[in-house]
Amino acid sequence: MNIQSAGKKLFVLDTNVLMHDPTSIFRFQEHNVFIPMVVLEELDHAKKGLSDVSRNVRQVSRFLDELIRDADQQTINAGLPLSRIEHSLNGEREFDGRLYFQTRQLSHLLPPDLPGQIADNSILSIVLALGKEYPDVNVILVSKDINMRIKAAALQINAEDYHNDQTIEDIELLYNGTMALDSDFWEEHGGKMESWQENNNTYYRVNGPLVAEWYPNQYLYMEGEDNFEAIVKSREGETAVLQLARDYRTKHNSIWGISAKNREQNFALNALLDPNVDFVTLIGSAGTGKTLLALAAGLSLTLESKLYLEIIMTRETMPVGEDIGFLPGTEEEKMAPWMGALMDNLELLGSRSGTTEWEQGASQNVMMNRVKIRSLNFMRGRTFLNRYLIIDEAQNLTPKQMKTLITRAGPGTKIICIGNLAQIDTPYLTATSSGLTYVVDRFKSWPNSAHITLRRGERSRLADFASDNL
């Protein structure tokens, strides 16, 4: 096995990297990849099942089978080519890394506290042996497991997280959907401004250097007495068309009895109620009103405007505490315990829709008949026509799961993704690699999508104090 190549690194992959991203073996460009035998054993144990992890493992096995097919022992020892062509701004660039399997015994004495029978410790032993056998090669362990990387650091092994699944390097760089305009904005951009009214909406066409930084359906505002708030409806170069945002803070403009409590909530309602926006993402901490606003807008569009046949709500069933085991009943009955937020908000919306107890009860029954609860486990292969689909707790979904859900949308369907990137419960997912972060970044330039980050909690002074001080 000759893995000494000038300027190339050797990345040893932990099992969880392959389970997380089946294409990870192709993500190291011109560098070489090494897979220990114990990793193949762990993949073999995890290949059965219907979970996404099992599907990923089976895909890894198919990739490896394609690479090793028709290869003789000499070719395997020399490394299987992972050559591929990647298109970039600088033209086509070919990467020629190689994949190496462990084909012989590799071991290195570990401290007595780290016996080699444990899979993680066996991998650490192999990394140490490779470093000793090839001192001129930069051997790096790649693992999604934080404890694995800590043990590697204690043994003076170079270890890294798998970064290719990260949408952005820093979550603070994530697009937030809004932009504050300076007080001199109109002086610089209002010289050739045009304005007109159409369908009870006011539009402006503005030109200037700042326009090039805007995204479709981005929300612009200006502090001060004018309280200017507008939506970027289209942009081409340094020219954009703005539409004045509707004000849903007033009671006569309330939606299903709900009024916006702040600027971000007002922008969210503008996006949720716009029939030309097919995909909306709402990110915010607990109590910012994400679920309530999405449901209120959905009920208005379904029961009053009749743009959609029904509201479908789903979420990842990831428990916060101990799992309570199997749940009896139908799909909706099994999902009911996970939908406490939905039921709480429906109860609130029902109480706002009538003056007497009888009217409130009747409204509650009408709403429940139009709101369906569905499990993510049964989404694959379905197509939703003219539905208002709410994906709750979307921060716990991987980019692949998010793609599976969004591609279920048929004609006339609107999808709302809501979540809190500070409360991720899925193992190996972070704020920068979450499927919610992924779709916010990928959809920000699409003219039929909108995103808003809600920052102010509106539950109670008790909840606000707890959020700031606990």
From TrEMBL:
Keyword flag Amino-acid biosynthesis: no
A cellular component term, taken from the record's GO annotations: cytosol
InterPro entries, per the entry: P-loop_NTPase, PhoH, PhoH2-like, PIN-like_dom_sf, PIN_dom
Annotated PIN domain residues: 9-150
Keywords: ATP-binding, Nucleotide-binding
GO molecular function: ATP binding
Pfam families per record: PhoH, PIN_4
Protein's UniProt keywords contain Magnesium: no
Family to which the UniProt record says this protein belongs: Belongs to the PhoH family.
The name this protein goes by in its record: Phosphate starvation-inducible protein PhoH
Classification of source organism: Bacteria, Pseudomonadati, Pseudomonadota, Gammaproteobacteria, Methylococcales
